[in-house]
Design a protein that fits this description.
three-stranded antiparallel β-sheet, five-stranded parallel β-sheet, single chain, binds cytidine-5'-diphosphate, alpha/beta, Rossmann fold, about 220 residues, about 50% helix, globular
Length: about 220
């Protein structure tokens, strides 16, 4: 069974997806982490973000692994190296949408995501899971929240990770990524027609988890 959870940054996708996966004993696949890992590699190799040819060649020659820990946390490996923490840095966040908008890069990553999800029951979170990666997913959700609330959430999250961010910088990042992710030509951020839309602005994580769980049980 595949459960797809899409939506913009700060809507609560990854927190909810992780809890749902743990509750059901499913594999959790954070697809954003895949694009973040690629972005880290591009920076480390000094590849210009506009050099699409080199970026595509790099993506073809990259191995990304996602490992679910027993305690429910996810570890990300880039060519065998644990990059779980590094990929959350602002330098990655700033560039990730420019890399993830490249069509060929998405095609290469599509194969990886489908391979990961086809081996076991999985919960995937991202931008295009219900529309492109697993359009046949049994359950699809689109989590959303008002812009300002998403900014506050992400700000608090990054502060907890001891990142030196300001509200303004988080606001700029979210506005920029929302815009690039929603307007790109290939696999833009969009609610699938058959996805359940949940506005989480005034909901706690527990409330969102309950609502999602309710819908999943209905489907059984
Ligand atoms: O955690 P956050 O919501 O900040 O973002 P993420 O899920 O880590 O994704 C980072 C970026 O990867 C997004 O802003 C998109 O540009 C890209 N992404 C994508 O294009 N398609 C996906 N399925 C997941 C992420």
């Amino acid at each position: 069974m595949i459960i797809a959870i899409d939506g913009p940054a700060g809507a609560g996708k990854s927190t909810v997806a992780k809890i749902i996966a743990q509750k059901l004993g499913f594999f959790y696949i954070d697809t954003g982490a895949i694009y973040r890992a690629l972005t880290l590699k591009a920076i480390e190799e000094g590849i210009d973000i506009r050099d699409t040819t080199r970026l595509i060649a790099m993506a073809k020659d990259t191995e990304i692994e996602l490992i679910n820990d027993q305690n429910g946390s996810l570890k990300v490996f880039l060519d065998g190296r644990d990059v779980t923490l590094e990929i959350r840095q602002p330098r990655i966040t700033k560039l990730v949408s420019d890399i993830s908008k490249i069509r060929e890069i998405r095609e290469i990553m599509l194969g990886l995501q489908r391979k990961l999800g086809s081996t076991r029951d999985s919960v995937l979170d991202g931008r295009d899971i219900g529309t492109v990666v697993f359009p046949e997913a049994e359950k699809k959700f689109y989590l959303d929240a008002q812009f300002q609330e998403r900014v506050y959430r992400r700000y608090r999250e990054l502060r907890q990770l001891s990142q030196d961010v300001t509200l303004e910088s988080v606001e700029d990042d979210l506005r920029n990524r929302d815009s690039i992710d929603s307007s790109r030509e290939f696999a833009p951020l969009k609610k699938a027609d058959d996805a359940i839309y949940i506005d989480t602005t005034h909901m706690s994580i527990d409330e969102v988890v309950s609502k999602v769980t309710e819908h999943i049980q209905k489907a059984k």
